[in-house]
Amino acid sequence: YVCIAMEALDQLLMACHCQSINLFVESFLKMVAKLLESEKPNLQILGTNSFVKFANIEEDTPSYHRSYDFFVSRFSEMCHSSHDDLDIRTKIRMSGIKGLQGVVRKTVNDELQANIWDPQHMDKIVPSLLFNLQNVEETESRSPSPLQAAEKEKESPTELAERCLRELLGRAAYGNIKNAIKPVLIHLDNHSLWEPKIFATCCFRIIMYSIQPQHSHLVIQQLLGHLDANSKSAATVRAGIVEVLSEAAVIAASGSVGPTVLEVFNTLLRQLRLSIDYALTGSYDCGAGVGTKIIKEHEERMFQEAVIKTIGSFASTLPTYQQSEVMVFIMNKVPLPSSQQSIEAGKAGENRNRLTQIMLLKSLLQVSVGFQCSNMLTALPSAFLDRLLSAALMEDAEIRLFVLEILISFIDRHGNRQKFSTISTISDISVLKLKVDKCSRQDTVFMKKHGQQLYRHIYLICKEDSNVQAHYEALYSMLMLISIELANEEVMVDLIRLVLAVQEIAQINEDNLTAYNRCALFALGAAYLNLISQLTTVPTFCQHIHEVIQMRQKEAPYLLPEDVFVERPRLSKSLDRLGPEVFFWQSKISEVLGGSGYNSDRLSTPYIPQLTDEDRLSKRKSIGETISLQVEVESRNSPEREQRAPAEEITYETLKKAIVDSVAVEEQERERRRQVVEKFQKAPFEEIAAHCGARATLLQSKLNQIFEITIRPPPSPSGTITAAYGQPQNHSIPVYEMKFPDLCVY
């Protein structure tokens, strides 16, 4: 009877005209509510089906007094059904999802009806859908027959829940995104679903693909806020949130960052710094209080790697000019420690600084890998390059390597980097299939401005005794990429001079380098000159390089990359007794290249780096700190320091007085001129004549004094001239015979 009654109601509902439907709906919804309250699953499903039919009817006039609170609560409850029979449980859950879908369709477009986006409704609807999405493993764990599988596919609550969630998010306007996302974050927290991260990633993939693209950055902001709120949660939870962020950023592409570009990176860098502190202190609080969680260092490291990957994901979605801003922002966060830190007090601080430097440089490398810019001048602003290169002179070998890798990723714009990953002396450069473009005007300007700075840092890095094979490979790549990407004739000449100077470092060995470091520098020079000679295509140059390499193969194979850059390098300790035939000679190279139009004068001049205060004072200081230290030392040592008067305090009154005084002086000068003019116009002739006569007399007396001094004979070098009898005699020499120095004659 219930079924017949409901069918009659359904048919009445369908037959109702739009104008009169409001009168009938209240009775209809009461009947549906009664069915939903029933304990019999069949009646609950019947009531749901009737409600879905009603939800699909479009009404012309809104109903102000109708409330769907009961339906939202009841359908959400049905979504969580835990009936003993699996089939009945699935049907009830399916009905619950369909019911929620009906409520959303009925209310979402009508602002005058109950607002479905209110947190009280969203906190029920979203978790109900996620609960059914989450149970996909449970339903898939049984292995049904193919026929059952086909049926299950039709009736799967998981798929229905996903479709309903997509529909809900697709209808969300700008102001409603927050209310829709917050329950998702709470659900993932409550059920500890960040740690395996598979489900969390799946959820946010659905969200990012469903919402309108212009709202993407709101989801990212919610996730970033949630990451901040969980900054003291376990590293695995934070890593899960960060990896979800990374996925979301890739999907949202250019819409992921929104208007506050640097705020996104600031949050991620802050989390990175916090993680370093946690790993060092072993606690989430500064003081190790009671009940603090034990931090696992390897988990924190995983989290740090996840943050770095996410920074790269975000940066890759930005346009070039914003990527450049982000890199400057990250570089400014890198701590460049000063030498004033005391070793005892600063041990923990030094560790923190080192880890922060490495993590931030890793982040910078991640950003620079996806950075493509044709104009190096805009890609590397002076302030950024100065800071980056000052980090290249630090004693920490790992930091130096990161700086080299970052520079390589900037310079390599045609993907040639991998072709120079192994150092070797290949006889034919064409097998590398290099992509070479003509050096542009902007690149020439860049090298004129920063070339010497780059050469100097390459030279100084070569002198470090803590270099390993990776450093030499990076140096080789950098030299080759500068030669291909940024080199005109002048740059090529400078690079050859630089490599010959590096050979000299190994040859003279003033820095007491190990045998490996010396052999590595010889091998690096051989590999570079071998390729550069083939790039310049000057036959005599190629011949000289080839001869030296052949001689090394016979006499000293340990000076070639094939023997040095291997797992077990074959070295020699008798490096100081090498013959001249195994070296590349500057005179010979300048001669052969000079004959082909290269600047032989410049080629024959040995390369000497321009050492700056930065190098002289300390390896670890940035340029800014060096200057401030220099100024401080000068002021401290100055003898005038005590005598120096205190600087006058400039106030508004002082400025006002200065302006008034200058006006008064001008007035006085004007008055004096007026009096002089007036005197000559109105005074009697005798008075003017007497005044001028007095001035003339004064002038005459001055001239007479000058003439007297000029005509008087000058003293001899010894003061007097002594005659044979020992009596002094004065000689008067006329003025016109006197010899004046050339500088005094006009």
From TrEMBL:
One record GO biological process: protein localization to plasma membrane
Membrane topology label: Lipid-anchor
Region (Disordered): 138-158
Protein species of origin: Rynchops niger
Protein family per UniProt: Belongs to the EFR3 family.
Cellular component per GO, a single term: cytosol
Protein origin, superkingdom: Eukaryota
Cellular compartments annotated: Cell membrane; Cytoplasm, Cytosol
The protein's name: Protein EFR3 homolog B
Keyword Ion transport tagged: no
Subunit structure comment from the entry: Component of a phosphatidylinositol 4-kinase (PI4K) complex, composed of PI4KA, EFR3 (EFR3A or EFR3B), TTC7 (TTC7A or TTC7B) and HYCC (HYCC1 or HYCC2).
Its biological purpose: Component of a complex required to localize phosphatidylinositol 4-kinase (PI4K) to the plasma membrane. The complex acts as a regulator of phosphatidylinositol 4-phosphate (PtdIns(4)P) synthesis. In the complex, EFR3B probably acts as the membrane-anchoring component. Also involved in responsiveness to G-protein-coupled receptors; it is however unclear whether this role is direct or indirect.
Pfam families noted in UniProt: EFR3_ARM
Keywords: Cell membrane, Cytoplasm, Lipoprotein, Membrane, Palmitate, Phosphoprotein
Principal localisation: membrane
